[in-house]
Amino acid sequence: MRGSTILAVVLIVIGVIALAYQGITYSTRKKIIDIGSLQATTEEHHTFPLPPIVGIVALAGGGGARIQR
Predict the structure, then answer these.
(1) Predicted TM-score of the model (pTM)
(2) Is 45:24 a contact under the CB 8 Å cutoff?
(3) Under a CB-based contact definition with an 8 Å cutoff, are residues 12 and 62 in contact?
(4) Where are the alpha helices (DSSP H) in the chain?
């Protein structure tokens, strides 16, 4: 496979994932208490939204990179 074909496939996969999930969710742990041997942590969930236009642009870019071959 040539580099442009690999790029096209990667962009198409990213586009499909962006349209299907519409966001990336991740968790972080934060220490809230640390007194001697007493420790307490909390888990915070964050979402990084991906607008549908990101998926559409990635799909179009992947299709365009594939067609230019």
Answers:
(1) 0.59
(2) no
(3) yes
(4) 3-21, 52-67
Q: Which tokens in the block code for residue 23?
A: 């966001």
Tokens of 4: 């442009």
Query: φ, ψ for residue 16 (rounded to 5)?
Result: -65, -45
Query: CA quadruple 22, 14, 12, 8: dihedral positive or negative?
Result: positive
Residue 54 has pLDDT above 90, yes or no: no
- Assign 27 to helix, strand or coil: strand
Work out the angle between the directed axes of helices 52-67 and 3-21 (0-180°, nearest 10). 160
Torsion of CA 6, 12, 13, 17, to 10 degrees: 160
Is the backbone of residue 66 left (phi > 0), alpha (psi -120 to 50) or beta? alpha
- Position with higher pLDDT, 35 vs 66: 35
